[in-house]
Amino acid sequence: MSEDVDYKFGNLKPILGQSHAEDTAKIAKALMGFHWCREQQYDRSFAKRGEIGVFMNLARKWDRIEHDMSDDLFDASTIDAIADLAVYALKWMDVICKVHQSAVIEWLENVYCPATGKALSTARFEFGIKDESIPG
């Protein structure tokens, strides 16, 4: 990819290619490893302020990225903010799965399962939501 091509508003399909989902999965796996390392350092400090704490961290990262993009400052610290934003989004999803289970189950039934073709029991397992009708 050429650095002098402006992709800010252009079509990204040519650079994403056919393996976009596979590439995204690799990046997600790498970010989860990165998250694990950082969590050892910060010990889930995001959690002490409740669900709003996770949201505020997302907002702070978004503000940083928005500033960098508006000033055409795109460097390693911008990448760090994007990586943190992705991790905080996953953390918030984890919190939501624990705090708002009925809404998540509704989303699984109406959006996730139809899109993926997965059974609700599989989806619940993937998102860590126990089936209360099954003991243990």
Report a brief summary of the structure.
The protein is mostly helical and 136 residues long. It has helices at residues 13-16, 20-42, 50-70, 76-99, 101-116, 120-126. Helix 3 runs antiparallel to helix 4 (76-99).
Tell me about this structure:
This protein is mainly α and 136 residues long. 70% of the residues lie in helices and 0% in strands. It has six helices and no strands. Helix 3 runs antiparallel to helix 4 (76-99). The chain is globular and about 50 Å long. The model has no long low-confidence stretch (mean pLDDT 85).
Layout of helices and strands:
Elements: H1 13-16, H2 20-42, H3 50-70, H4 76-99, H5 101-116, H6 120-126
Proportion in helices: 55-70%
Radius of gyration, whole Å? 18 Å
Mean pLDDT: 85
Stretches where pLDDT is under 50 for at least 5 consecutive residues are none
Strand content: under 5%
Q: Outline, from the CA principal axes?
A: globular
Number of helices: 6
Question: Tags for this entry?
Answer:
136 residues; mainly alpha; 2 domains
